[in-house]
Amino acid sequence: MVRHRHRRGFYPLAQTSTLPSVMKRIVLLIVLGILLIWIGTKILSSFGVGNTVKQNPVRLSVEGQGVVNVSIEGENPKRAEDQLKLYPRDRVQTGGRSYAVLSFFDGTIVRMDEQTELYIHKSAYGEKSSEFSLELLNGSLWVASPTLESFTGSILREITTSNIKIKIPSGTEAMISPISLAVFSSDDLGLLVWLTGKKENIIIGEGQKIVVPDKEAISGNAYKYRSPLDPMVVQSPFLEQSKREYSIISKKSDEREKVAEPEIKEPLEVSQPQDGITVSTSTIKVSGSIGHNVSSVRINGYNLVLEEGERTFTQDLSLPDEDQVSILIEALDSNGVVLAEKRRSVRRDREPPAPPVLTSPAKGGETYLTSREDIEIVGKVAKDIVGIEVNDYRLQLFEQGDDSWNYLASTKLGNFEFGENIFTITAINKGGYKSEPAVLNIILGEGEDGILEETEETEESEDSEEPLISDDTTEESSIIDYIPLAPGTLHVTGPTPGAFHNATGSSFLLEGTTVSKTESVYVNDYKLRLYESGKDFWNYIADTKMGTLHRGTNIFRITSRNAEGRILDEIEYTVKYDPRSN
Predict the structure, then answer these.
(1) Whose CB among 98, 397, 481, 510 lies 3.0–4.6 Å from 540's, allowing a Cys bridge?
(2) How many CB atoms lie within 10 A of CB 223?
(3) How many whole angstroms separate alpha carbon 218 and alpha carbon 61?
(4) What is the pLDDT of residues 267-320, one digit of tens each?
């Protein structure tokens, strides 16, 4: 009997399905695909793909009488023109009595105070997200951002200083300095602030401020530097001016939104200047609109750079010194072909203004004598005058619209000296033309303050030696003369050292030296009122108008006395005056 032996082994009871392994591969591929898409999106978005980003210009408006300088991409600073377009890496700096307003693409306004410097890091407008960032180097600024509904899309606004970094939300109104932040309003809970050396941020809400130590490490709780706003900040003149300026800008913006852009049928339309007008300024604004087939505008040979899609143009044109000026405006296509042209004829009013009127201490053309070493010159001008110059120095505090002006002459300032001082004052109009000068002669010397009358020299004056300035003879009569106690200590150093001088001019300054124990100095028995006890120098004005100088021979007897009235030294100085030899 044969028995069959079965082979032993492992055999599946049924056929195994391949579906689970395939599903695992599909899921893995899907996860990898999603991961690659996410990484790719992040990389592309960093280059602006998916969010078209455009470097957007920042428009600069210049205010005040001072100078605003700009540095374009690190170049040397130059004086800024109004409505200049700035970009990242540009720097703005205001001087004394000057302010600047930066207008951003989202409607944010940043107004710079005087003596303020600002650096533009970013200004980028995107379809989905936008951002701009500034660095306040020194000074202070006021910032106002639009409300949330005024700007679509997300936007990051940042302002940094050496001590703080600030994130600006919508609806913000705040003042910022390198070490402080004052918040007046905000749509959010407040402004996020990062202090130097601190990783976590803090919130500064409406009606609050923060002031941090300058150039010191920030330690401990950062909220200890936060406090309520004080009335002095709210009453700041810079804050009031900034609010007023923002109101004007917002009103103009609203008016532009209400007025629909007119359809431009002609290739070129010029809105200003009007043909045949008369202007008193040295520059004129040329503006207008262009058709869609126009690529550039040329004004008197100067090509204007227009932004893509921009249908209007504005340019300040300097006018030559001519009575009649012709302005040619041309519209060109992309090939440089002139599509249209307009001409405007402008007449310049080059008539110089009337001279300033002097009211104090004397009128124009007069001579005034004073012993004061500080004296104010005051006058009046027409309200259309833009500047006043005194001896080629332009008055810094005078502004257009002022009908009066003043100028301080002082020996301490170096613009006033003993003897004759001639001041020529001119007025400057909008066109830059100067008036005929008003002339005032002020003599700083001994005598009563007052206007000196013009006197004609006659032959009889040669024999007259009586000065027009009265002497104090009462004091002199009480002084007993003695033999000089210190002979050789009194000297004449000018106008010619020694004892003799030939004079041809109508006046000169007689000056010399003495010893420190001198109490008083006399010239022809006249006590010098400006001489101070103990000084080792003295001076005296000899002038025909004052009666202290006449034709022919003049002898000046100079005497120095001590505190007891005794003569220290006495000398004579002879001057021969002959005006005909001049």
Answers:
(1) 510
(2) 11
(3) 36
(4) 899 999 998 888 878 888 999 999 888 888 999 988 887 777 788 899 888 888
